[in-house]
Amino acid sequence: MVDSPEAYSDDRVFSGGFEMIKQILAVPSTLILLAFSVGQQSRAQDFTVTAARELGPSTFVGNPFSIEVFFQKTGGAAQFEVGEALIRFELPAGFDYEPPTINSLSNFSGTAVCTLIDQAVDCVATETVVFSGISNTRSTLAFSIPATPNTVGTFDFPPFPGLCAADPDNLIVETDEANNNCSAPALTVLEAPTLATTRWLTTSQWDDLMRIWDQPTQQLTNVQRQSLDGEPIHALNEIVQAPTGEIYVLFRSFQTAEHRLGLFDPTNGITDIGNTGVSFHDAAFADDGVLYAVGRDATLYQLDRTTGAPSALCDTGFGSASSNHSALAFDSDTDELLQIVEGSIFAFDLNMLPVDASQSCVTTETDLGEGFDTETFAADFANGQLFAVDENATVTFVARDGSWLVVGEVSDGIHGMIPDPGGVPVTTPQCLADAYVAINGNESADAIYGLDLKTGELSYLVSRDDSIRGLEVDPTTGTLLMTEGSGGGEQRVYRLDACTGQEVSSVVIAPRAVLRNLELAPDGRLFGTQSRDVISVDLTTGNATTETVLAESVQAFTIVGDTVRYDVSNSNLTTDLIDAPISDIGVPTAQISLDYGPIVPGSERQIDTMDAFADGSGAILALVRRVVPNGGANRADALPNVLARIEPDGRVIELTTVPATVDVVSLSNVVVFLDGFETGQQEQNR
């Protein structure tokens, strides 16, 4: 029972109950509003209701959207008895509607249900509803009605002479009875277009892969990895095709971290053109062969196709290193360069470029409506039709009048796209690598690469948003175990598919520990180190146990049978390796003196990370970091690292060098581990 308004006092006002409301929303086609008691004062009241739509003036058959309804009461207390209607919204035919869903509510008590029946939503009190009358307090209710058009035509919301109104039966005397009605702008529904192309060649700034996206099947297929002069490419930011057919790519060099322009041939791969000196969001060719690009600094550039050199043209007003992603495309029908950014299309007037490139570009805007994602990563025309991909990997057909239609979802990020030119050969990379390397990406995400120990060739696997601290392969499942991060919050052991890099599962490490030097023990426990601590983790529960605390920080750590082998960090970079039983790690039993032989005579060396070979020989794979004499802690003077096999007698045999990563300083963050598979099993899994 709800007390009368006079029974409330101002000091009994409170808010809450939203979680309770969500728990009750199990009634089909019904939105139940369960509110809370509030204080009341006697003042004149007024109801208003508004309706909006997350679309532009037109859309297509089959394109879902939502109608947003917002009800508000201001002024004095008001009360609806059981069975009385708070809101009524009559809807037009031609759409498939779903039950309303609540967005927010505040400052009233009692309960009501909002029910979709035929073509109308009615919100009716099922228990006396009392709205607050406290001074300067508003009572509000907001809900959404999902709708999908199924008929071509132009529709009014509500349809004439239909009703959208608060207090539709005029039960409450208000200060203004003329503002109770609402309407949303008319919507024109068009026939869904026949897509001019259904296959796209795509790139991603997260890796070196080109992929084909097939719209009818919604499949994204890896077709070809890219490299440059035998070295991997860190990221393929954009792909664009000239009017004469040549294909260009904007990419980031793995060796130098430079942003460069290249020419792509489906058979021969990428030919480097030159350093652009700028990181770009997107690029597009005009019909006259001029290449335009939008930089992360918000500037519109023209790129020299023969050198990659950029020339600044004007300030778009959108763009930064971390937000305002945008896409460029050229409309041959209107001879306009288009930028899709922040939910709008901006058409550049290339005949009115300012003399000073720091001045604003001259554009005209077409709003795409609130439902269009504000972060657009890629766009291109195909036979006169414009397509775009957003941050959620949603592919959308976009009409120049602002209407749009979602045509697919992609399983991975797309940052560049052109209609599939055909002729790009499919190359299937090996699944399991000899070793895995986690490389600090400097300004971008850390990435895991597979490493061929015979050739030193790296092959991209996956990128991660956080710093990768440790890797290990679980030979029983063919998955990678990984730890990352160093900041606050929970820490996890992640299990990744060794063939795709996709996350399979994870477990929280408790108590919290940031682990590197991961090693699987024969009993299935995962060992890792955190400074001087050697910690084991139960991979089922995540429970972490400190096995021992050593006198110095652990630099490298591995397990050979029932023995642990480790190297501690101190001022002597040529320290020997220490052996101890896995049952009592704190008690050393042996020391191995290392013989580096010809690996840069006279330089200082340190074992950075290591892992045992699976051949039963007792040998280990180690990453040897080399520092010029007297280099001390200045890692800017570091020499290329060496992957080496350390024999049980201490001989260090060079296998291959590790290519320079983004920044020489980040070499201290490189971790390398052998996958742990026996040779026969490894070949069988490839």
Task: Describe the protein in words.
- With 686 residues, this protein is mainly β.
- The strands form 13 sheets. Strands 1, 5, 6, 9, 10 and 13 form a six-stranded antiparallel sheet that branches.
- β47 and β48 (563-568) form a beta hairpin.
- Residues 1-43, 631-638 and 660-686 have low confidence and may be disordered.
Write the layout of secondary structure elements.
Layout: H1 18-24, E1 30-34, E2 45-53, E3 58-60, E4 65-75, E5 78-80, E6 85-90, E7 95-97, E8 101-106, E9 108-117, E10 120-131, E11 139-149, E12 153-157, E13 164-166, E14 184-190, E15 199-203, E16 209-214, E17 219-225, E18 227-228, E19 231-241, E20 247-253, E21 259-265, E22 269-275, E23 280-285, E24 291-295, E25 299-303, E26 310-315, E27 327-331, E28 336-341, E29 344-348, E30 363-367, E31 376-382, E32 385-390, E33 394-398, E34 404-409, E35 416-419, E36 435-439, E37 446-451, E38 458-464, E39 468-474, E40 479-484, E41 492-497, E42 503-508, E43 516-520, E44 526-530, E45 533-537, E46 544-549, E47 554-560, E48 563-568, E49 577-581, E50 590-592, E51 604-612, E52 620-627, E53 642-646, E54 652-657, E55 671-674, H2 679-685
Parallel strand pairs: 3-14
Antiparallel strand pairs: 1-9, 2-4, 4-11, 5-10, 6-10, 6-13, 7-11, 8-11, 9-10, 12-14, 15-16, 15-35, 16-17, 18-19, 19-20, 20-21, 21-22, 23-24, 24-25, 25-26, 27-28, 28-29, 29-30, 31-32, 32-33, 33-34, 36-37, 36-55, 37-38, 39-40, 40-41, 41-42, 43-44, 44-45, 45-46, 47-48, 48-49, 49-50, 51-52, 52-53, ...
